[in-house]
Every structure is written in structure tokens, then in C-alpha cells.
Amino acid sequence: KQEVTQIPAALSVPEGENLVLNCSFTDSAIYNLQWFRQDPGKGLTSLLLIQSSQREQTSGRLNASLDKSSGRSTLYIAASQPGDSATYLCAVGTSGSRLTFGEGTQLTVNP
Amino acid sequence: ETGVTQSPTHLIKTRGQQVTLRCSSQSGHNTVSWYQQALGQGPQFIFQYYREEENGRGNFPPRFSGLQFPNYSSELNVNALELDDSALYLCASSLPSRGIRTEAFFGQGTRLTVV
What are phi and psi of A20, to 5 degrees? Predict the structure, then answer.
């Protein structure tokens, strides 16, 4: 059974800091890995999708890496801003297109 | 905006009642998945529909059922509601291609409260 763990559970940083969110998964037989952002009480916004054959994806200030063999992914956020405050969820895509999610990292960026 | 719309946005039901939640997928997407997200937890996979057929199910009892229509919109039905069914219900649509699992796009969710 696939299990996804995100560390840390919560993170508070000053504005402008670069930060790294971590995601690990137990079964390396994945199709892809997707990072999402969730604002309180809202749905999920897709940030980055990495296919299993790729090593990283970049979008603006965000960079996500994938190491399938070690079962790890990181989301790097450069020059953090208060508007980045949200919960970040990592999800691995497995058979049948289902996503298995971690419990998220709650990020607070202080002005 | 992802193009995935869910209705209603909020709902309050009494224990034992039945509820139907609705989802309109992004244009052209033939696969719809439903997830349950309890407070403070990550979403949990309920089931998926592909071209009107159930295509995988998570660890949820049979009182959770669904439908997908020819226009690829979908419903989630929950019978005999329990207090623990209180959660945010999320719908996601995608368009799988051969050998590649494509990006999933989520709606804003339906907040169900069972009292």
C-alpha cells in the first residue's frame, strides 16, 4: 500500500526566505507526482506535475524534483512572499490514475 | 480557475439522511475522481469514473456510490450519513493518455456537515 509522508507538518518563515518542502513515498512504482496548494476551506490548485521519467519541473519561483529510486520529492520555493501562505500537498499518481496524498505542510510566510 | 465546478458549495445534513453531490468536469476530460478530505488531513481517494464506468475504488463502504453521465459530469451519493462523513468532498477531472497519467484538476469542493 502506497504511503506518502510530508515533512515538516508546519513551517513559519520570514518573507524573502528560500525554503524546501519534503515529500516521501514508500512504493517507487508511480506514474507521476503532483504538488498542490490549498488555501483554507478551498479546493486544490495544481502547482507542478512531474512524470515518472522526469527529474524536475519549474514554474516561476517554484521548482520540484523527483527521485523515484529513493522515493523522494522536494518543492523549492524561492524568495517566499506572504501570499505563498497555504497548505502544500504532495500526491503520487498510481494505477488507475488515483492520487495518494500526504497530509500536507502548512506554510506561513510572515511579512 | 480549473474549469471543474462542484455543487453545492456547502451542505448540512442530519445523520441517517442521503446526499448527492455534483461535479462538472473540465471540457473534454473523460475521467472524474472523487476524494474525501477530513479536517487537517490529506484527501482520500473514494472512486474514479472513466467513460461512465467505475474504474477503481478506495477503502470506502458501499453506501458511497457514484455515477458518470455521457457529458462526463458526475455525482457522488452517500446513503445513511454518519457524523464521520463530515468533510470536504473534492472532485478532480483528467484526460488520461496512453502511457502517461496526466494532470488532475480539482474543483473547489463541497463542504458537508452531518449533525
Answer: -130, 130
Q: Which of A4, A97, A103 sits opposite B101 (nearest CB)?
A: A97
B113 closest CA partner among B30, B14, B35? B14
Q: Average pLDDT of A87-99? A: 87
The β-bridge partners of A101 are A91
Chain B residues whose beta carbon lies within 8 Å of the beta carbon of residue A42: 108-109
Q: Do A42 and B108 touch (CB under 8 A)?
A: yes
Residue with cell 468533510: B87
pLDDT digits (tens, 9 = 90+) for B57-100: 999 999 999 999 998 899 999 999 999 999 999 999 987 655 45
Flag if A96 and B55 touch (Cβ within 8 Å).
yes
Task: Determine the Cα–Cα distance for residues B18 and B63; give it in Å rounded to an integer.
Answer: 9
What would the pLDDT profile of A4-50 be if each residue is shown by its tens digit? 999 999 999 999 999 999 999 999 989 899 999 999 988 999 999 99
- Find how far residue B32's CA is from the centre of its chain: 8
Q: Please check whether residue A6 is in contact with residue A103, taking contact to mean a CB–CB distance below 8 angstroms.
A: yes
Averaged pLDDT score across all residues of chain B: 91
Determine the 3-state secondary structure of B83 from DSSP: helix
For residues B48 and B33, is the Cβ–Cβ distance under 8 A?
yes
Answer yes or no: are the C-beta atoms of A5 and A24 closer than 8 Å: yes
